[in-house]
Amino acid sequence: MAVAAPLVGSGSTWLTLTVAGLAMGLIVFIIASGLTLVFGLMDVLNFGHGVFIAFGAFVATSVMGGMADWVGSGSLWANLGAVFAAMLAAMAVAGALGLAFERVVVRPVYGQHLKQILITMGGMIVGEEVIKVIWGPQQVPLPLPESLRGAVLLGDAAVEKYRLLAVVIGLIVFAALLWTLNRTKVGLLIRAGVQDREMVESLGYRIRQLFVGVFVAGSALAGLGGVMWGLYQQNVTPQIGAQVNTLIFIVIIIGGLGSTLGCFVGALMVGLLANYAGFLAPKAALFSNIALMVAVLLWRPQGLYPVTNR
């Protein structure tokens, strides 16, 4: 961030770009964190992760469409109520879909990475077609509520209200993930199960159920991320998950496969670089993320924070 300041020149412009980059990065982190959890703790390469993103986004269009009075109200609390209701509904639907996806698609191919890639990609294609049947193939608008439109002035810098909300939610999700994995009994059991599954099961704990819970939680986070990305774009399409998938894998590769901290840092790097490059050299912004990934891998082939047991 500090390196970009003299290149941008104006302090207010730099602040605007930085907050926008942090917001984008944290939204991508929320989306990618679910996939990071699933791979880091379950060793499952889920290339169908995008279907949970898409379902979350489309559920949000239905929920917010049904709460039009709340969305169009001038009350901040009513607007936030509509947004949070859409997020909760999206997480519930994506989590339930994740449970079914794990049982039907993923469970038969545990430990078989090539088959996981193929079958989960097929699952995402089927999911997109189901979305088209339910909501139609066209682009659906997902406008911001009245109170979240516009910008807040911080000195001479204009910062969009929604981006500030995205930063807050992203930081809360990151803190909650770290606390759950490092400070709770469930997190301890999950991490222990990754290291020595048989030993944990011999103590009477059902690791399979815990791992299914991890998959459901990862799917729910993807649903939450889908709502936030849809609001960020202010529209959704059935292909929204596939479109974001590439960005997700870039972030995960940069951070190190399976690392929550690496996913967080990688997402911030991608978000900030995309906004700085978009301002300084718009044509370079099209491949800036790929260039960042290549540079990181040339320096650290296993990513910034590799997980030692992978």
Word description of this protein:
The protein is 74% helix and 4% strand. Helix 2 packs across helix 11, helix 3 runs antiparallel to helix 5 and helix 3 crosses helix 10. The two termini are 31 Å apart. With 310 residues, the protein is mainly alpha-helical.
Please outline what is shown here.
With 310 residues, this protein is mostly helical. The chain has helices spanning 4-8, 11-42, 50-66, 68-72, 76-106, 113-135, 161-183, 185-195, 197-202, 207-233, 240-255, 260-280, 288-299; strands at 140-141, 151-154, 157-160, 235-236. It has a two-stranded antiparallel sheet with strand order 1-4. Strands 2-3 form a two-stranded antiparallel sheet.
In which order are the strands of the major sheet placed? 1-4
The proportion of residues in beta strands is under 5%
Largest sheet: 2 strands, antiparallel
Total helix count?
Answer: 13
The sequence of SSEs as H and E is HHHHHHEEEHHHHEHHH
Total DSSP E strands = 4
What number is the mean pLDDT? 86
Oligomer state equals single chain
Could you estimate the helical fraction of the residues in percent? Answer: over 70%
**How large is the radius of gyration?**
20 Å
Low-confidence stretches: none
Shape designation: globular
Determine the N-to-C terminus distance.
Answer: 31 Å
